[in-house]
From TrEMBL:
It comes from Penicillium subrubescens. This is Zn(2)-C6 fungal-type domain-containing protein. Residues 1-20, 89-129 are annotated as: Disordered. The keyword Metal-binding applies. Residues 30-59 form the Zn(2)-C6 fungal-type domain. One of its GO terms (biological process) is DNA-templated transcription. Residues 89-98 have a biased composition (Basic and acidic residues). Keywords: DNA-binding, Metal-binding, Nucleus, Transcription, Transcription regulation. Pfam families: Fungal_trans, Zn_clus.
Length: 729
């Protein structure tokens, strides 16, 4: 037995068979270097031969796909790895953004990290880009959103600059009005007694410096308030209580009065308005520096100083002052100051608890006043936000108080006595329907810009026609709600039309100014329809796009046509009201709405030169010049607007003739690719990067402070060179 173990030859046969079947380990595939050398390769990663020679070995350990299934699996694996790496990068960028920068860190590394934006995450909206611009009255840049006229004119200027193929810069001239007369200039003498009592309110002292009115003059302007702003803006001041308050301020046998912020701001507003109705040569000392926009600034300044003492303990009167100050600064075109004042009004309204519906134990008269104040804040917040393209400050995600009443009982207890206008409508009905209009438009505005918030940062509003039509469908869905508002206007508040034209329509019929109608009621009718057209222009203007022209017969093109129609109708109403009445004389809101409309029409004519509305739009531009001439006889900002639009209208006629060749016959210049009218994309003509690098046309500057330009002749080629210029195009 032992001998069998020691002698291999005597082992069992099956053990010998197993030894014979053992084979060497073979390599599944030799590396590239071993295959070329025809040498033995092992499964090392890298192989031992390559390590010995110091060569690069192709053995990486990764399986190479030899079939379609294996290739698909490898691609899926790589995609998962890429997603994991991107997620990790975003997380690191977010962590770095939330941590303070380390002291002494490398500037280049710091800037690289800041350039990596964190993912906004689900449910978060991204602000649209807008533009950064330094207004003439400001030393710093401020942001204006994409819905603002500022942003629209910036894009229009870049579009014109590219079409002209020349550099046209605006040379800033010396200011002709408000730049030498700042709104917040402090009188030399300052406050009487403030050095001795810096923290005490000057209840007995009277400001001695500046241009102030006598009591008789104050009464004139105060009485003007009840027929204008009180009825045609918002009824937030009880007339009876105010007059009693004013009488209580009289001292020294009626020779002087005590300071009052509310009285001063009402006087300042009416001085600004009344001075703007007077010819420039008769304005006298009320218009300092021949600028009606800053008339009453001394009363405004005094009221502002008094309001500082109420910031920590506000009252309803404090809120009334903030709202009226916002109107005054808006009329003077101090838009950043206006929106800051609206912010004060919003915070004050929350401090006073006006966001809660008044308790039933409160007298009905006081309940209605609190509601009117809250909705006045809502109206100013909506107006300023949509005008400048900035976020709203009032939260709309909570229930709000009930709308103010316009019943006969509410009107009787309001403190003002105006005759009922019929059909259960009163002088308060105008304010109620204005608020309802802003509610509907603000809802549509919010839905539209929230819908576009999914776009990537720095991406154009319309990256393609599909996105453009998608946005148009969202906005068009709210059009029916706005039409329902039109149908709900009482007949006594509707502006009649000639030849059986429909009120609040765009049928281009002339309006009828009924005789023997109180001016306050006629102005309410005008302003209600005027505001409707103005808001529709702003709502539909994104579809007059200089980056992507809407497709023919698309819903986007339809909304662009609606925008132009409302702008034309607004111009016709403004022109007729100024020609046949004095209802819009000095009304700065009407002027700014007209400027907004005419610049929109300029953009429309440039983008749609062969549209069926092109003729009406050009005619409306001519009417706008007459409107600015009328306003310009009273305040210089309108006179300069007339010069600008008059110059633009001449040159636009030349450019639109060349545009007929570009868009109708597809004879496109070297910067435009040939295409059919239904598919011409301005993206081809305006590369997104080149837009920001294009020469500065500065048409945008004219919209911000057009009162600062005496001439716009430098914008365009000389008149004698027009034929040569047309030939070049």
């Amino acid at each position: 037995m032992i001998g069998d173990l020691e002698n291999p030859a005597s082992a069992p046969e099956h053990q010998v068979g197993l030894r014979r079947r053992q084979r060497r380990v073979q390599v599944a595939r030799a590396c590239d270097a071993c295959r070329l050398r025809r040498t033995k390769c092992d499964n090392g990663v890298p192989c031992s031969k390559c390590i010995a020679r110091g060569n690069h070995c192709s053995n990486s350990g990764a399986l190479k796909a030899s079939t379609l299934t294996e290739a698909s699996e490898e691609i899926a694996c790589l995609k998962r790895k890429v997603q994991e790496l991107e997620t990790e990068l975003k997380r690191q960028a977010s962590d770095h953004h939330n941590l303070p920068s380390p002291i002494g860190s490398s500037p280049s590394l710091h800037s690289d990290r800041l350039s990596t934006r964190a993912d906004p995450g689900p449910g978060l909206k991204r602000y649209r880009d807008g533009i950064q611009f330094r207004p003439t009255r400001s030393s710093n840049e401020t942001w204006f959103g994409p819905s603002s006229l500022y942003s629209f004119i910036q894009r229009l200027g870049e579009f014109l600059n590219l079409k002209l193929q020349k550099e046209h810069s605006v040379h800033r001239l010396h200011p002709v009005s408000a730049s030498d007369h700042k709104l917040l200039d402090v009188p030399e003498a300052g406050l009487v007694g403030t050095q001795d009592r810096p923290l005490s309110r000057p209840t007995e002292d009277v400001f001695s410096a500046g241009i102030y009115l006598s009591l008789i003059q104050e009464e004139y302007f105060i009485n003007l308030y009840w027929q204008t702003y009180h009825t045609s803006l918002f009824p937030i001041v009880d007339e009876t209580q105010f007059k009693n308050h004013y009488q209580s301020l009289l001292v020294n046998g009626g020779q002087n009065r005590k300071p009052s912020a509310l009285v001063d701001i009402i006087i300042a507003m009416c001085m600004q308005y009344a001075t703007s109705t007077m010819p420039a040569e008769t304005q006298g000392m009320l218009a300092e520096g021949k600028d009606a926009l800053v008339a009453g600034r001394w009363h405004y300044w005094r009221g502002q100083k008094l309001l500082q003492y109420e910031l920590d303990s506000p009252s309803l009167s404090t809120l009334q002052c903030h709202l009226l100050c916002a109107v005054y600064t808006c009329g003077g075109s101090f838009h950043n100051l206006m929106i800051s004042t609206v912010g004060l009004a919003v915070s004050t309204a929350y401090m006073l608890g006006l966001h809660l519906d008044p308790p039933p134990t409160m007298p009905e008269k006081d309940r209605e006043m609190r509601r009117r104040l809250w909705w006045a804040v809502y109206l100013m917040d909506s107006k300023s936000g949509m005008k400048l393209g900035r976020p709203f400050m009032l939260s709309s995600s909570y229930f709000m108080p009930s709308l103010p009443s316009d019943t006969l009982e509410a009107a009787a207890s309001s403190g003002s006595m105006f005759t009922p206008i019929g059909q259960n409508a009163t002088w308060l009905s105008y304010n109620l329907h204005t608020v309802q209009l802003y509610m509907k438009v603000r809802t549509a505005y919010t839905a539209f810009y929230d819908h576009e918030s999914h776009l990537q940062e720095r991406q154009a509003l319309w990256p393609n026609h599909q996105a453009q039509n998608s946005g148009a469908e969202v906005l068009n869905a709210y059009a029916q709600s706005i039409h329902q508002w039109v149908d709900g206007i009482p007949e006594s508040l509707k502006l009649k039309r000639q030849n059986n034209g429909q009120s609040s329509s765009t049928d281009f019929s002339s309006i009828v100014l009924e005789p023997f109608t109180p001016p306050w009621l006629q102005r309410q009718r005008l302003l209600l329809e005027h505001t409707y057209h103005h808001l529709c222009v702003n709502l539909y203007r994104p579809f007059i796009s200089f980056t992507l022209k809407p497709l023919s017969d698309s819903i986007s093109e339809e909304l662009a046509m609606r925008c132009a129609s409302h702008a034309i109708m607004l111009t016709m109403i403004t022109h007729q009201a100024l020609t046949e009445s004095t209802l819009f004389d000095g009304w700065h809101e009407a002027f700014f709405c007209q400027w907004n409309a005419v610049m929109t029409l300029v953009g429309f004519v440039m983008l749609f030169p062969s549209s069926t509305l092109s003729y009406q739009a050009k005619h409306a531009i001519e009417l706008a010049i007459l409107v600015f001439d009328n306003f310009g006889a009273k305040f210089s900002v309108a006179a300069n607007a007339a010069k600008i639009v008059r110059d633009l209208s001449v040159k636009i006629e030349v450019l639109t003739r060349s545009s007929d060749l570009e868009f109708n016959t597809a004879t496109i210049s070297q910067d435009f690719e040939v295409g059919s009218l239904s598919s011409v994309s301005v993206d081809q003509a305006l590369p997104s990067q080149d837009l920001f690098d294009a020469p500065d046309f500065n048409l945008f500057d004219m919209a911000v402070d057009i009162d600062f330009w005496n001439s716009a002749d430098t914008l365009w080629p000389d008149l004698e060179n027009l034929s040569q210029f047309q030939a070049e195009i």
